[in-house]
């Protein structure tokens, strides 16, 4: 349990570092079609979350995720607070019995459901949902139908999210601040979809590192085979 | 009495709107809230929770909001707060004025105040 918790803390730290590195890029994207605060909001929120979770005493994964979400909710003064933070808090309940292939799928689905419910957006609205939906669906299918390991499934999901981000470029925004621009939002990549991809990329890289470090598979009833040597599947 | 909360991305805008609505609102409790908590433009749920708690006098609270993330953060705050609160799907200033007037009625309920706020959507100016 504590190993899993530590891995999730490492993931939050990795996300915070990545978003800090991408701060100006995200701000640039958000300047084109939004209110130019996404880079700052995300970097600030996740860095506060990384500090909060580092303070936790031997936490379980659900507690780390919940703490991250709560911190985002109070630190991010924009839509990303309720969307990222609120959805993490809500979905963290799925990880209460630890991180398994099965609970990770449930977490991803619940997270997506909450984002869509809160933001009232569907695929094609030019939002983070355009990256999330293909990612979550791909993750679920990879685990449940294709019998891939969770890390292989996550790699597939990241590739799907990347295509989702590309998909946001040519479409017109119909949700969020970008929708005020109408046709002028066409041709710009959505900042929320982009930050969603960055978060997933960091989760993948931490998951790969953690499993390479862990010689022995974590106790995991849902996925009997844990590959010992990760081969990231490249399309 | 039914209380009101006005949520805007700008704290100043929320205060100004509450000021306008107060002229028509008699003793109605109208709480303005807004800003990102760090002096910038935005909304945060924790501040909205405080406003909801301050506006709740036993008959519920109608929440007026400006833009997208204010709606989301108001929803989050309502989930966090013990106040019996609903968001009105209404223009923020006109809705606040309508709601303030509706709240002064002795028969005012949470639903009647919200309905009056939402009626402001159909008011033509010209």
From TrEMBL, chain A:
Disordered: annotated segments: 211-235
Gene designation per UniProt: dhaL
Domain DhaL span(s) in chain numbering: 6-205
Any one GO molecular-function label of the UniProt entry: glycerone kinase activity
Keywords: Kinase, Transferase
Organism this protein belongs to: Haloarcula limicola
Cellular component, GO, one term: cytosol
Gene3D superfamilies the UniProt entry points to: 1.25.40.340
GO biological process: glycerol catabolic process
Recorded superkingdom: Archaea
InterPro entries: DhaK_L_YcgS, DhaL_dom, DhaL_dom_sf, Dihydroxyacetone_Kinase
The protein, known as: Dihydroxyacetone kinase subunit L
From TrEMBL, chain B:
Domain PTS EIIA type-4 span(s) in chain numbering: 1-126
Top-tier EC class: transferase
GO biological process: glycerol catabolic process; phosphoenolpyruvate-dependent sugar phosphotransferase system
Key words of the record: Kinase, Transferase
Catalytic reaction equation(s): dihydroxyacetone + phosphoenolpyruvate = dihydroxyacetone phosphate + pyruvate
NCBIfam families associated with the record: dha_pts
Protein name in the entry: phosphoenolpyruvate--glycerone phosphotransferase
UniProt lineage: Archaea, Methanobacteriati, Methanobacteriota, Stenosarchaea group, Halobacteria
Gene designation per UniProt: dhaM
